[in-house]
Recover the amino acids of this structure.
């Protein structure tokens, strides 16, 4: 079973690995520098729509988490 990385960590890793400046990322994605800088420092989180923009830009595949099925109840 593979352990999935939280979306925030995947985004931070993608931003860092891109080697792009925050200013260039702002230009390419439309996400403000302030939002990205606060996110990268860990002082603020990203709104979901902003995380979606960044995930799409970096082509991150974010799928549903796999969970164990709840046990079936008797009589159903």
């Amino acid at each position: 079973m593979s352990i999935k990385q939280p979306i925030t960590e995947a985004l931070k890793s993608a931003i860092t690995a891109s080697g792009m400046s925050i200013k260039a990322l702002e230009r390419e994605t439309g996400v403000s520098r302030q939002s990205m800088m606060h996110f990268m420092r860990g002082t603020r989180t990203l709104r979901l729509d902003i995380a979606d923009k960044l995930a799409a830009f970096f082509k991150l595949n974010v799928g549903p988490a796999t969970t164990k099925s709840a046990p079936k109840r008797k009589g159903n």
Notes: The helical segments are 7-18, 22-29, 33-41, 48-57.
